[in-house]
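Folding Query — how this chain folds
Tokens — whole-number codes for backbone shape
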Amino acid sequence: MNSPIPQGPKDVRSTLRLAAHLPMAVLMVALTGCAFSDLKPSAKMAPPQDVEQTLAASGISLSPAAWPSDTWWTSFNDPQLNALVQEALAGSPSLRAAAARVHQASALEDIQGASLLPHADVAMSTTRERFSSNGTTPSPVKGTWQNVDQATFNLGYELDFWGKNREAVEAAVGRRHALEVDERAAALMLSTSVVQAYISLQDTYEQLDVAQTLLNQQEQIETLTQQRFAAELGTQIDIKQSQASLPASRANIAALKELIELNQNKLASLLGKGPDRGRSIARPRMLASNSVALPTHIPAELIGHRPDVVAQRWRVEASGHEIKVAKARFYPDVNLTSFIGMQSLAFDTFNDRSSRILGFSPAISLPIFEGGRLRGNLDAQDAAYDLAVENYNQTVVDALRDIADQLASLRWLKERMAQQNEAVATAQAASDLVNKRYAAGLATYLQVLATQNTTLAEKRQLVTLQSRALSLQANLSRALGGGYRPEINATADATPTVADKS
């Protein structure tokens, strides 16, 4: 039976020396931990504000199933819009750039992950060297020129006792996840931009309808004025007044047609295409939803439905792991390296068994004095964590305000639409009455002109409110995350406690 106790005097002395240094190593590690115990992040992740009472008072129905779908734009029932959004998502340079950033982060994660594995390489060299006559090289080699041929297989591994490399990998994972969510956020912003530009195009077409209707009415009034003058019921002044309004209306129609082309150009650019693509976009036929429902428990669930909030959570988590990396740098690095190969002063003996070389080298390094570099690095990582947390907190606040803005606008839009419909009906009735009186010679042209202008203004405002309803419906879907569902939830809510440990 072999005894585990060293038998030779050298083995005994080596063991005793190792045992003598062990308490010193333990003490140095303990002191290292005290060197940064006063450095901690100060920011805390704030929970979302409770706005349940605000939602209950908004007059909008609540439903657990009211979170938008990932194809939320299909709720407008316009097949052309559906095709445009899909085309934009497939061909946008900005989305391809976001995908490239994700790819880059994934590659950096792979690079960082390599630190957890052993590394091996093969090295071969040949060196023409003159050996010193007064050096350590013995005769007959000293003072002569020789070729030193060497080939080795090298193997190294860092013992990650303090988790430095593991935490660095986790930080890289967090950054990659953040960029993946950023890609989803960019897709949401792009689809929203397409929908809003499409709404603007529809609004311009409807404003053009109002302007064209007014022009037709003005031309009829001008014909009627000519007839009244022929019947000696009007004057030449009435004819000039009726004719003066026509160029202004035609100029307004030309301006609206220009705006239609500009909106088509904007849509084409959002699709990643040239202006010619915009010319093929037909008139929109969007329909606003008659009812809007909100999901329940918005504050509690918002952090899992808004891509910008989820991305910030991943950045907080990544910063928490970076703090652990910075702390681990205060502790010793332990590396194991070994090599095996051949070395010879003459190539003809290179393959001889006697030319083999073999080595094993455990190494440990502990920072003692580095001028505050490690403390500064940890302090910077603490500050980066605080910044990430506060950015997250601000993103949550902005998200809740965004939803509240849409709710406030939707709440009052219904009342505005009802009042505006009544205003249009009243103005149109007044205009029809004045036109009949004018045809009968009982009203002046100035009265006709006044009622025309009033009716035009009210109809324009109604069209604007109808477009506003579409826009708010799109904005609410965006504010609620646009159907985003994270596949992996960030655990950044636990990071502050972990990061504060010293």
